[in-house]
């Protein structure tokens, strides 16, 4: 699906594929690969097609710690170690996502105690973002 988005077919192709596969659903959550860099223009184009972009965001160290301590997947045995996280999350990407330009798309993935919020809070935050409509 992301290949169509990146190959120049962009938001129209992505929205069409979503509607074709899940058109009967009231909403669909998709996840981009960690290596995907979404530009503001891509997110605006997606929103013009009815696709809302949300970036679950946190301080780099919070994200790295959460990734490395997750108990629901075998990490090291399949190469998902600290160096993988660092390659997938270069400082320039984290800096961009933390910038003012990306603030309309961010939902904080960690609370002030550097822990993940509970799922109901996160779901409500995503619903609020989706319900607020397209961004400027």
Descriptors for this entry?
single chain, mainly alpha, two-stranded parallel sheet, 6 helices, globular
Strand and helix layout:
Blueprint: H1 2-22, H2 40-48, E1 55-57, H3 60-69, H4 82-88, H5 91-97, E2 106-108, H6 119-131
Parallel strand pairs: 1-2
Order of helices and strands: HHEHHHEH
In spatial order, strands of the major sheet run 1-2
Radius of gyration: 16 Å
Percentage of residues in DSSP E strands: under 5%
Structural class by secondary-structure content: mainly alpha
Count of β-strands: 2
The shape, in one word, is globular
Most strands sheet:
2 strands, parallel
The helix fraction, in percent, is 40-55%
User: What average pLDDT do the residues reach?
Assistant: 81
Oligomer: single chain
Uncertain segments of ≥5 residues (pLDDT<50)? none
- Please give the count of helices: 6
Could you give the distance between the termini? 25 Å
Protein described:
It is a single chain. The radius of gyration is 16 Å and the shape is globular. The longest helix has 21 residues. Strands 1-2 form a two-stranded parallel sheet. With 136 residues, it is mainly alpha-helical.
In a nutshell, what does this entry contain?
With 136 residues, this protein is mainly alpha-helical. 49% of the residues lie in helices and 4% in strands.
